[in-house]
Amino acid sequence: MAFELPPLPYAPDANEPSIDKQTMEIHHGKHHATYVAKLNDAVKGTPFEKKKIEEILRGINDVPQNVRQAVINNGGGHANHTLFWKILGGKGGQPGGKLGDAIKSTFGGLDGLKEKVNNAGVGRFGSGWAWLVKTPDGKLDVTSTANQDSPLMQNQVPILGIDVWEHAYYLKYQNRRPDYLKAVWDVFNWKEIEKNF
Ligand SMILES: [Fe+2]
Questions:
Q1: Which terminus of the chain, N or C, has fewer Cβ atoms within 10 Å?
Q2: Over the stretch 62-78, which tens digit does the pLDDT of each residue have?
């Protein structure tokens, strides 16, 4: 079966005022939908169209070279946005469970994590993502990727990601990426984020 655009798990205005309704509608219904369509074009008629996108990205070097960059861009775009929609729609607050403990021991708590992730997002020149990831040895780390590159290609598990492409915030925040980064934490759904750990 071809890859499909997952429905938003909440109404498009559910993340207001941090993320406005129109941005959510365009971001999900146009940008993410385009990544899915182009990913399907890239893998059409190959064994990759039956695999999970996470599996494809973890083994990205097995993808034929003539379509590899298209899979990195559009498959990464599909996986990154699918995670992003899932971890929004909440009310922020504090992380709990094992992830909460790990954030405390690694970053001194939520404020320490926020500062690192937001610095990674502000420091990403051009388009990309800021991430909290689990490294292959099971530790937490904060990283940033360019464009739609997925942490899965680096053998890392994405736990939390913030899209810092202008399409994610420009309608409401224009050039004020730091304000957007600050506001996103108010709508994180920690119960969902904890599941990724
Ligand atoms: Fe995006």
A1: N
A2: 999 999 999 999 999 99
Q: How far is the CA of 78 from the centre of ligand 1 (A)?
A: 9
Domain covering 21-87: architecture: Orthogonal Bundle (1.10)
* Whole-number pLDDT of residue 55: 98
Burial 119-143 (b: 16+ CB within 10 A, else e): ebbeebeeebbbbbbbeeeeebebb
> Domain 97-195 classified CATH 3.55.40.20?
yes
- Indicate the domain borders of the chain: 21-87, 97-195
What's the 169 CA to ligand 1 centre distance in angstroms? 9
- pLDDT of 153-175, one tens digit each? 999 999 999 999 999 999 999 99
Using the mean position of ligand 1's atoms as its centre, give its distance from the Cα of residue 8 in Å: 14
Q: Is the pLDDT of residue 1 over 70?
A: no
DSSP 108: S
What average pLDDT does the segment 104-115 reach? 98
Distance CA 47, CA 52 (A): 11
Give 31 Cα–ligand 1 centroid separation in angstroms: 7
